[in-house]
Amino acid sequence: MTSKMQRLLVLLGVSLGLGGPAAQAADEPKIGFLVKQAEEPWFQDEWKFAEQAAREKGFKLIKIGVPSGSEVLTAIDNLGAQQAQGFIICVPDVKLGSAVVAKAGQNKLKLMTVDDRLVDGAGKPIESVPHMGISAQKIGELVGKTIAEEIGKRGWKLEEVGAIRVSYDQLPTAKERTDGAIASLTRAGFPGANILNAPQAKTDTEAAFNAAGIAMTKNPKFKYWVAFGLNDEAVLGAVRAAEGRGVKAGQIIGVGIGGSKSALNEFAKPMVTGFFGTVLISPKRHGYETAMNMYEWIKSGKEPEKLILTAGSLMTRDNAAAVRKEMGVE
Ligand code: FCA
Fold first, then answer.
1. Could you give the 3-state DSSP secondary structure of residue 322?
2. What is the pLDDT of residue 27?
3. Distance 115 CA to ligand 1 centre (A)
4. Strand blocks (E) in 92-231
5. Ligand 1 atom 9: the closest Cα is on which residue?
6. How far is ligand 1, taken at its centre, from the CA of residue 229, in Å?
7. Residues with Cβ < 8 Å from 96, sequence gap 6 or more?
8. Residue nearest to atom 10 of ligand 1 (CA)
9. What is the DSSP secondary-structure string of 66-96?
10. How many angstroms separate the alpha carbon of residue 140 from the centre of ligand 1?
11. Whose CA is nearest to atom 7 of ligand 1?
12. Quick one: which of 20, 25, 210, 306 is 20 to 30 A from 119 by CA?
């Protein structure tokens, strides 16, 4: 046998040897999980729990960060090229709704959304796409109620308190969350004139820091502060802005929404900060359950429920471990 032939046989052997598992891998379902802000701990947790579903069921999870509209569309084409069967997405802008639905259709991909619900050209939710979100208004109300009770405990005079509403109103779930908080504060007698709107350009801590800083500078008369927004990052931005202006931890009450690493890091600091608490929501339901639902849809044709809204629980420094355990998100 010539060495050339030997080499050929080796090559053939290698490729045959790989043929088995490679063919199997081609059969396993492929599911995309696209998120708008991959660096945010909430989305990292969603991915982590979706991976758990992938391991249990033996499908391949394709995780892609999609911070812009063009990246969303490219990622969907990419999934199509990889012959994925479906994907779950949290879009960077809900107005991409019709484009995302069309792209998914072109690539024959099943589509589910998580966290942020797609809207059509008229701004109406696209009800045909199965969605899992949080019960935003209720969770916001819990934020507002927690703040109002804590103001009461600290014995602050309401007229001396400024409320920073870190807002991102172009995202319906964000607006519902802050509307909920305002509803509870108002019910508790909080003066509407003391609620300051601080619109953030992006839903991250830095944008919230900038927005809150402007609102505080414009309103120097307040002795105490409270802060709320769509997530923990928004509230952390406001708390950091207050600290930067010399506001002590005892003079500000920030209550976020999320409860993942951003909040836990804050609770782990040796000194109490102005970040008083958060409403813990479930990345397990949003990651594991959506991935499972997509898998079942692909495997057995069982379409997921059209709308699931998940609940939250108040978590503070004192009960963080217990609340997380209860919610199964350790
Ligand atoms: C939105 C927010 C995230 C998280 C999620 C449930 O997408 O931007 O921070 O709160 O809803």
1. helix
2. 78
3. 6
4. 110-114, 131-134, 161-167, 195-199, 224-228
5. 231
6. 11
7. 69, 72, 118
8. 231
9. --SHHHHHHHHHHHHHTT--EEEEE-S-GGG
10. 13
11. 115
12. 210
Q: Among 116, 260, 280, name the best residue to mutate to test ligand 1's pocket (greatest count of ligand atoms within 8 A of Cβ).
A: 116
CA nearest ligand 1 atom 1, residue: 115
Q: Which residues line ligand 1 (CB under 6 A)?
A: 40, 42, 90, 115-116, 134, 173, 203, 230-231, 257-258, 281
Q: Which single residue is written with the structure tokens 């890091």?
A: 265
DSSP 8-state assignment for residue 125? B
Tally Cβ neighbours within 10 Å of residue 78.
16
The reported pTM is 0.91
Q: How many CB atoms lie within 10 A of CB 17?
A: 10
Distance CA 112, CA 118 (A): 10
Residue stretches of the chain with pLDDT short of 50: 1-2, 5-6, 8-24
Q: Do 126 and 101 meet the contact criterion of CB atoms below 8 Å apart?
A: yes
Most distant CA atoms of the chain, gap in Å: 95
pLDDT of residue 10: 44
> Distance between CA atoms of 225 and 295, rounded to whole angstroms?
46
Distance between CA atoms of 15 and 59, rounded to whole angstroms?
A: 23
User: Distance from the CA of 216 to the center of ligand 1, in angstroms?
Assistant: 25
**Please, how many CA atoms are within 13 Å of residue 282, restricted to the half-sphere of its CB?**
22
C-beta separation of 191 from 219 below 8 A: no
Q: Take atom 6 of ligand 1 and give the residue whose Cα is closest.
A: 115
d(CA 260, CA 256): 11
At 125, list the tokens: 């939710």
Residue that has been written with the tokens 């804050």 in this structure: 266
